[in-house]
Specification:
There is one protein chain. By secondary structure, the protein is mostly beta strands. The chain contains two helices and 44 strands. It has a 26-stranded antiparallel beta barrel. Strands 5-6-9-10-8-7 form a six-stranded antiparallel barrel. A hairpin with a 2-residue loop joins strand 19 (221-226) and strand 20 (229-238). The longest helix has 8 residues, at 8-15. It is elongated, with a radius of gyration of 36 Å. The protein starts with a strand and ends in a 19-residue tail after the last strand. One of its GO terms (biological process) is Gram-negative-bacterium-type cell outer membrane assembly.
Length: 704
């Protein structure tokens, strides 16, 4: 059958005269299999596969009658209307519309808004292209089918109005149902269109229960200030601890951002008044590659964060910095404040750092690389030693690869420090200066074997290093080099002290062997073994490590990619009899439905660790089916056979709703925070303040 296309001129004159004034603004067309004019009435009749296009509005049906005298379009049968004013697609059994398709009524209407919210109504009325009024309405984002005739949730309302300008739904006499059972009646409520990604209104509430505060509910209210600013205010109402008020303010700039927030407990308790915390996070690009950053937190007392589940940290760090990164150079100036929440660490003894400044510059001198560094550090205590340090340094490094594949590297570093110490209980106030140097060379000779499906590399490594420093190390207080470790990451380092207050001196050799095998299927193996050998013992290192002995413990590390989804790795620090002083084992698996990871750590008793310690941390997630997921995790003290924490959660979700129940138990006791068990319950509904939920892993109930 011949298809007819009536272009713009046919619709404007004489068929749709009201559209003539808008011809230049909107695309208007009629497409149909057959078009005729009733000679008696003058009505235009379009039949077959009929489509009207007007701007962004598209109407399709089998038969359409245009009443020229009344300026009305009548659709006597089923139709589909796609319109931005409606917010999606409308299906109806009958409709009468004006010639602009902006006003009209429809019966047996069903609408799909933003491919999420489904609304069915006995009748629909379109007013001025802005308001869509639906009468005797049922709304849900759940798929309804023969296998699942009752949706998980739905809203029945006497009337629903959608405002196309405000992108908001308004309900009158609404009844909220779960699994077909009425659970809540509201004479009036509203929510934003599912297409709105950011709008003022209430967010999903969260139910919680804890041994610390009893039962509680969090009800967040999100307020949009403008395109770059918003705020969230959350009352947290508890049965045993009163009411807490949480707040957060966010602002984005062209060159940065700022987040401010905190929590205030409105009632006093046995701990004190005005309990809570404040935080600030932000960054700003001042131009010319200069960036300022802030990350700070302040808390009223040591127990607040842990008591209400905000954080289990026992030491808080706040920083304020200004930095600049450029090719070959870098500088940073910062201030650091530590807030100790530990029972055995008085705040008066914790240092405050101002400033911490660092400058680094790299030069290419032919085939040699040169580095210049300058640092300054000053920290003070209310009770105890104050220290200021200024350091300058220079380093040179060159690597040569010979034709046989032998890699030769030479390096040299020189530096100087100036210290000022005040209020030291042992020496009082004093000024000290020292210089240090490190020179050495490194040899690597990788042996490579290649055959079908396997590449193997064995690389022996030898470093010979000489370090010297003027003066007595004990003349300078040791603030930043108390905890020293030996592992595969610093086996070939020339100074294994973590800070600048101590320096590795003497003549020593870093010896090691590395192995790697690579296969096309990804089943790779890596391994490292090595130790440090000294000309003579060095007493600068603490007794908790064998680095100061003439022969250190052996460092052993290995990794195995069993499959593309499975990784096993571990490290060991052992003496000549292979008695381990530290063991670490890590494993991880990430499959399509099951994923888990874990870490086991063993530390033998030493000066820092008063007794043997062994812990296991484990986390797992299992996708039971397309809708159910389970998560579990724990941290266990193996040595004492006690749990430190246990977490578990189960969630269910599909295209229209997600439900999550979580439980956690903290077994440790700190300050006046007792062991407690927490429970959480969250329900999210797609189409009402939420976008489509979990579409990547959640299946529809109907299996489509």
């Amino acid at each position: 059958m011949r298809r007819l296309f009536l272009p713009l001129i046919l619709l404007i004159s004489p068929i749709f005269p009201g559209a003539a004034q808008e011809v230049e603004q909107e695309r208007v067309a009629l497409i149909a299999d057959r078009v005729s004019v009733d000679q008696a009435t003058g009505n235009l009749i379009a039949e077959g596969d009929v489509t009207i296009l007007r701007g962004e509005t598209v109407l399709t049906t089998d038969r359409l009658i245009y009443d020229r005298a009344a300026g009305q379009v009548r659709v006597p049968g089923q139709l589909i209307l796609q319109s931005d004013e409606v917010g999606g697609v409308v299906y109806a059994d009958f409709a009468e519309l004006d010639e602009d398709l902006q006003n009209g009524v429809a019966e047996g209407a069903r609408a799909i808004i933003d491919n999420q919210l489904q609304v069915a109504a006995t009748s629909l009325q379109q007013i001025d292209g802005r308001l869509t009024v639906l009468n005797r309405t049922t709304a849900s984002s759940c798929v309804i089918c023969e296998e699942n005739p009752t949706p998980i949730w739905q809203i029945r309302a006497e009337r629903v109005v959608r405002d196309a300008e405000q992108l908001r739904f308004y309900y009158e006499n609404a009844v909220f149902e779960l699994f077909g059972v009425p659970v809540l009646y509201l004479p009036y409520f509203s929510h934003f269109d599912p297409s709105v990604r950011r709008a003022t209104g209430f967010l999903n509430p969260e139910l919680r229960s804890s041994g610390e505060f009893g039962s509680g509910v969090r009800i967040p209210y999100f307020y949009v200030i403008d395109d770059s600013r918003d705020a969230t205010l959350t009352p947290f109402v508890t049965t045993d601890a009163g009411v807490l008020l949480e707040g957060e303010y966010r602002q984005r700039f062209m060159r940065g951002s700022i987040d401010l927030g905190g929590t205030l407990k409105l009632q006093s308790d046995e701990v004190g008044d005005d309990r809570g915390f404040l935080f600030a996070r932000g960054d700003y690009d001042f131009g010319d590659d200069i960036i300022g950053r802030i990350d700070g937190i302040a808390v009223s007392d040591d127990a607040f964060l842990d008591s209400f589940g905000y954080s289990s940290a026992d030491r808080l760090t706040s920083t304020l910095s200004l930095e600049r990164f450029q090719t070959g150079r870098f500088w940073r100036v910062s201030s650091i404040y530590f807030d100790s929440l530990r029972d055995n660490e008085p705040q008066e003894t914790v240092p405050f750092i101002l400033p911490e400044a660092e400058f680094r510059r790299t030069y290419a001198l032919g085939e040699m690389r040169a580095d210049l560094t300058a640092t300054a550090l000053s920290f003070t205590r209310d009770d105890g030693r104050d220290v200021s340090r200024t350091s300058l340094g220079a380093g040179f490094d060159r690597t040569i690869v010979t034709d046989p594949g032998l890699v030769l590297r030479g390096f040299a570093d020189f530096g100087g420090d100036l210290y000022y110490t005040a209020d030291d209980p042992a020496v009082g106030s004093d000024t000290d200066a020292r210089v240090d140097s490190t020179v050495g060379f490194e040899l690597r000779y990788p042996f490579v074997s290649r055959n079908a499906g396997l590449t193997q590399v064995i690389e022996p490594i030898i470093q010979i290093v000489r370090g010297d420093q003027s003066g007595d190390p004990e003349d300078v207080a040791n603030e930043d080099s108390l905890l020293v470790e030996l592992d595969e990451t610093n086996l070939f380092s020339t100074n294994r002290f973590p800070g600048s207050d101590r320096f590795e001196t003497g003549t020593y050799a870093n010896l090691g062997l590395r192995y790697e095998s690579i296969t096309p299927r990804g089943r790779n193996i890596t391994g490292t073994i090595g130790r440090v050998v000294r000309e003579e013992a060095l007493d600068t290192f603490p007794g908790s490590t064998t680095l100061g002995q003439e022969e250190s413990d052996y460092v052993l590390a290995a990794g195995f990619d069993a499959t593309r989804n499975t990784r096993i790795s571990g490290s060991l620090l052992a003496d000549d009899d292979f008695v381990a002083s530290r063991t670490e084992l890590r494993f991880a698996y990430g499959g399509e439905r099951l994923g888990f990871s874990g870490t086991y750590v063993f530390l033998r008793e030493d000066e820092i660790t008063p007794e043997d310690r062994a812990e296991l941390v484990f986390d797992a997630s299992y996708q039971i089916d397309g809708n159910w997921q389970a998560d579990v995790g724990f941290r266990r003290d193996i040595e004492n056979s006690d749990f430190i924490r246990v977490d578990a959660a189960v969630s269910w979700g599909n295209e229209c709703a997600t439900f999550e129940f979580s439980a956690s138990r903290r077994f440790t006791r700190r300050d006046n925070v007792e062991p407690s068990t927490d429970f959480g319950l969250t329900l999210r509904l797609a189409g009402i303040g939420e976008s489509a939920l979990g579409t990547r892993r959640r299946e529809q109930i109907c299996g489509t």
